[in-house]
Amino acid sequence: MGNIISSFLDVFTNPNFYANVLAVTPPILLAALGCSIAQKSGLVQMGMEGIMLLSSFLGTLAAAYIGGPNPWLGLLVGLVVGGILGYLVAFFNLKLKVDIVLVGIAMNLMGSGITAFFLPIVTPNHDRSSTNSLQSGILPNIKIPVLGDIPVIGNIFFNQNVLTYISYILIAVMAFLMFKTKLGLRIRAVGENANAAESVGISSDKIRTIAMVISGCLGGIGGVFMSSVYLSYFSNGITAGRGFIGLAACSMGEANPIPTALTSLLFGFFYALSNFARTTGISDNLIKMWPYAATIVGVVIYSINKTNKEKKRLAGLAKDEEK
User: Fold this and answer.
1) Three-state secondary structure call for residue 125
2) 190-231, pLDDT tens digit by residue?
3) Most CB atoms within 10 A, among 19, 43, 72, 221?
4) Rounded Cα gap, residues 39 and 65, in angstroms
5) ∠ CA(62), CA(119), CA(239), 5° rounding?
């Protein structure tokens, strides 16, 4: 037991651990931000996992076959594919009136099914598990001059992948979009009361479609992160539930960018811990389940907290009525 505690202390005092937390969080963060803007518009982005998978897959193929290799092209393709898939989710829900949850489930099944089916077709060696035989490239790490040379802090914050920097910048971008722009005001208005928004000339379907396209684009970037930063290739199930964890992080952060980002970092902490804790002597299978266990615990705590707030609100209304 003493050895395990000592090993954990070594992990928590290692600057590389905190650098890894920042490095593994972006896919969850991007998925969570994408779910947040969808939720602010009054929709639930249940299809985030499938969007991330398809964007990652097609982005990898574009980077390998068109760019040869060009991961930047892969990123662009992944972003566009994510936006198109986000539009399709909106189209089926808003125009064809298919339940948003069913559309999301279909998107997730389509993502896992299409990638598994086409993987052996598009790879030179007919690989069924990954595109490792393709040269799709990897996005570069950037050490920021001067800041990157600061002891400890420089290695943690200023020696990361370029897409990691972009991901964290997007927190501020999304916060500005949601709370400081006319589009953000309309998205929030439609999400709070679509009928009231319609009464002043705002098309709720149009605004929600825009929100879902942005949501898909963010998910697409998150998917490409997995195959051009986290790994240098696409593999079956590469997202490993990060789309669903992003949805949980969005709910726990109440769809606001900064609280959602902090919740995403919490889940990233457990992913990093699972990477570093293999030296502690704990079972590898137990370690791998930590991020998912943390998700369940987090959602339960969020649900209890929300229930208690609702009870207090109803109790306050009851007292007002008595008066």
Assistant:
1) coil
2) 999 999 999 999 999 999 999 999 999 999 999 999 999 999
3) 221
4) 36
5) 80
Distances from the Cα of 115 to the Cα of 58, 87, 234, angstroms: 9, 20, 9
Provide the 10 A C-beta neighbour count for residue 117: 9
The whole-angstrom separation of Cα 230 and Cα 42 is 32
* Nearest one of 30, 24, 53 to 166, comparing CA atoms: 30
Q: What would the pLDDT profile of 197-206 be if each residue is shown by its tens digit?
A: 999 999 999 9
The per-residue b/e assignment along 175-187, b for 16 or more CB within 10 angstroms, e otherwise, is bebbeeeeebebb
Angle (CA) 196-309-245 rounded to 5° is: 80
The first and second tokens of residue 133, run together, are 């035989």
Q: What is the DSSP letter of 142?
A: E
Question: Model-level pTM greater than 0.85?
Answer: yes
| Rounded to 5°, angle at Cα 167 from 164 and 170 | 150
- For 195-252, give the secondary structure using H, E and C: HHHHHCCCCHHHHHHHHHHHHHHHHHHHHHHHHHHHCCCCECCCCCCHHHHHHHHHHH
